Amino acid sequence: MARRLTPALIAAASLALAAVAAPTASADHGQATGRALADRATAYGATAKYQVHANAVADGYVPDKYCVFDRVGRTGALGYPHFNHKYDNSVDPTKPAALYYEDDGRGGKRLVGVQWLVYDRDQKLTTDDDRPTMFGTAFKGPKPGNFPGQPVHYALHLWLWKKNPRGLHETFNPAVACLPGTTRPQVVS
After folding, report:
1. CA dihedral 88, 90, 96, 100 (to 10 degrees)
2. Whole-angstrom Cα distance, residue 41 to residue 107?
3. 30 vs 24, 33, 122, 161, CA distance in Å?
4. What is the pLDDT of residue 6?
5. 130, 120 Cβ separation under 8 angstroms
6. For 56, which DSSP code?
7. Backbone φ and ψ of 15, nearest 5°
8. Residue 183, phi then psi, degrees to nearest 5
């Protein structure tokens, strides 16, 4: 019964967000806020099916076996990234490049957040004239690649499925933790 109830609750939440977005003022700020809320409701609806981890894998999101945490500031974690590189450069709320999962305490994974990733046009860390925005928020960056071969890019996180006490678009979420032994071993040089 819980599996049937979850999609109904997600649909209701998406409709509620869309309803809140609809009666905005005609001022530019009101329209931008309304668009941001409507796009967020769209992202909720599009990613709801990924609450079932197998659906994400079936749709081409490749799981990383390691949980990612903030090694520098120790301010939380991302969880387990699942990238679908066909959505790199997407600014479509229905097509995030990454999904983030955490351990659910029962041997499975629970969806906590999503991310969009856009490559920097000139591949220079010193310029940002092509910085994209979504949900009324500018992407962070440009940032160097996180692994060999990843281009300089902009990134926007959205904590749709687990509240981030530091903010909806912050990179790391202090409410997400990596279990001991699940993080990438640090290379010592």
Report:
1. 40
2. 29
3. 5, 5, 33, 25
4. 55
5. yes
6. H
7. -65, -40
8. -95, 155
Strand partners, 79: 68
Give residue-wise pLDDT tens across range 2-58: 444 455 444 444 444 443 334 433 445 566 689 999 999 999 999 999 999 999 999
Predicted confidence (pLDDT) per residue in 85-137, tens digit = 999 999 999 999 999 999 998 999 999 999 999 999 999 999 999 999 999 99
pLDDT at 166 over 50: yes
**Residue 16 corresponds to which tokens in the numbers above?**
């509620």
Phi, psi of 125, deg, nearest 5? -70, -15
In 30-124, which ranges are E strands? Answer: 62-63, 68-69, 77-83, 98-103, 109-119
Within 10 angstroms of residue 146's Cβ, the number of other Cβ atoms is 11
Cα-based distances in Å from 170 to 16, 21, 124, 149: 24, 22, 23, 25
Whole-number Å distance between alpha carbons of 185 and 52 = 28
Give me 7's structure tokens: 């999609």
pTM assigned to the model: 0.83
Angstrom distance (rounded) from CA 44 to CA 48: 6
